[in-house]
Amino acid sequence: MKPIYVLNGPNLNRLGKREPHIYGTTTLAEVEDLCRSAAGDHSIVFHQTNSEEQLINWVHEAIDDGAGIIINPAAFTFTSLALLDSLKMFEGPVIEFHISNIHKREPIYHRSYVSMRADVVMAGLGAKGYATAVRALLDLVEQRQA
Hints:
Structural class: alpha/beta
Number of domains: 1
Mean pLDDT: 95
CATH architecture: 3-Layer(aba) Sandwich
Largest sheet: 5 strands, parallel
Distance between the termini: 13 Å
Low-confidence stretches: none
CATH superfamily: Dehydroquinase, class II
Radius of gyration: 14 Å
Order of helices and strands: EHHEHEHEEH
Helix content: 25-40%
Strand content: 15-25%
CATH topology: Rossmann fold
């Protein structure tokens, strides 16, 4: 079976140190471990970048090689039509994931371009919610293959 892609956008490499009152103290390395554990034997491709171009390139890679995408686009959620366009080319399930509840934050965080393509939007579960997202994505992939 094709791998699932867990893609993370800008500043998520600073998890554990960046605004812990919003994002908690879990590091990105710990998030990756949570994802791999939740996936069991299923293969995961896990990436983080501060570059919009690189994030789009990984979506393109998933178009060819992936079964599903979990994406935490961070700030690109609210700014990137190019990211939306790349996700629209992906035929598998997409989960948009946010550590914080973006709807409880400032109004600038309330309009997501990525939500226009996402099959599921998860927000506010904290970093440990990535494991829930992985399990949900595996269920969606299984449903589509049935």
